[in-house]
Amino acid sequence: MEDIKQFRNAKTESQMQTLVMGLKVCPVCNSLTRIEAEQCSLCNWSGKFDTDVTHVADHLGDLLAKCPELLDTLVPAATPSLLSRIKEFLTQEIHLRKRLDLHA
Ligand SMILES: [Zn+2]
Fold first, then answer.
1. Domain boundaries in the chain?
2. Distance (Å, whole) CA 49 – CA 61
3. Kind and range of the H or E element at 34?
4. Which of 23, 51, 52, 79 is the most buried (most CB within 10 A)?
């Protein structure tokens, strides 16, 4: 089994923990399903699911080993904060005004 730790470098520990806590393993088909779903999304199992964090992390690690790009979908990149967007806007604005300085 692939170790999920190798994927933790790409995302923060808390993001990975949130992801793992939001999933469960179907005991019938071993697929991952969202924790709030009542049925398995693959085989429609609706009994008890495996919510053991270690098992979920192992299954997620296997899945990400086959398709690493999936991580970007499961854990989207953090959107920039309002403060950083304002700072970026002002920086661009200052550069623009310097280029358009007509006082000379
Ligand atoms: Zn299933």
1. 5-77
2. 18
3. strand 32-34
4. 23
Lowest mean pLDDT, pick from 26-30, 31-35, 36-40, 95-99: 95-99
**39-56 confidence digits (pLDDT tens):** 999 999 999 999 999 999
Task: Return the axis-axis angle of helices 13-21 and 53-66, rounded to nearest 10°.
Answer: 110
Q: Calculate how far, in angstroms, residue 27's C-alpha sits from the geometric centre of ligand 1.
A: 7
| Distance from Cα 10 to the centre of ligand 1, integer Å | 28
What's the pLDDT tens digit per position in 86-100?
A: 888 888 877 767 766
Q: What is the dihedral of CA 8, 14, 18, 21, to 10 degrees?
A: 80
* CA of 82 relative to ligand 1 center, distance in Å: 41
Going from the Cα of 79 to the center of ligand 1, the distance in angstroms, rounded, reads 33
Q: Which residues crowd ion ligand 1, with CB under 5 Å?
A: 26, 28-29, 40, 42-43, 45
1 Cβ contact partners less than 8 Å away, ≥ 6 residues apart: 58, 61, 62
